[in-house]
């Protein structure tokens, strides 16, 4: 098991692989990795546009607090975020393993979805259009899209679903 440390002031959390760490504007944080790790991150829009994208308290002074951040440990990151709060733009952010014996995942999207293929291949079908996604390829799907997702040989993917 790989352990890392996240400091999301004033809380400290040790976590295993595949957590969610949400650090909204005003949440002082630091990541200390003790072992090699795989990192996937998303940066959302700046809310008040008063500071550069990432600031330090030493250079820019204390931040204006918005809402508290949170950590969902990897062992608990198996579906939608239980309580994302009022400001987190995502309902889900997790890695999934798609296997060849899994049923095809078919849905009409109620919110935007983002898929990143980390290993293997994924077949994405939208209407009559079909594409094979390979490692490091990303599919950004709009709400209202009808999609089918499968993997003939298995794949490891990162899925992010907006609220």
Give an overview of the whole structure.
With 163 residues, the chain is mostly beta strands. It has 2 domains: 4-76, no CATH class; 90-162, Jelly Rolls (Sandwich), CATH 2.60.120.10. The protein is built from 1 helix and 13 strands. The protein has one helix at residues 57-60, and strands spanning 4-8, 11-15, 20-22, 29-33, 70-72, 90-98, 105-108, 113-120, 122-126, 129-133, 138-141, 146-150, 155-162. A 4-stranded antiparallel sheet has the order 6-13-8-11, with no helix packed on it. A 4-stranded antiparallel sheet has the order 7-12-9-10, with no helix packed on it. Strands 2-1-4 form a 3-stranded antiparallel sheet, with no helix packed on it. A hairpin with a 2-residue loop joins strand 1 (4-8) and strand 2 (11-15). Mean pLDDT is 81; it is low at 1-7.
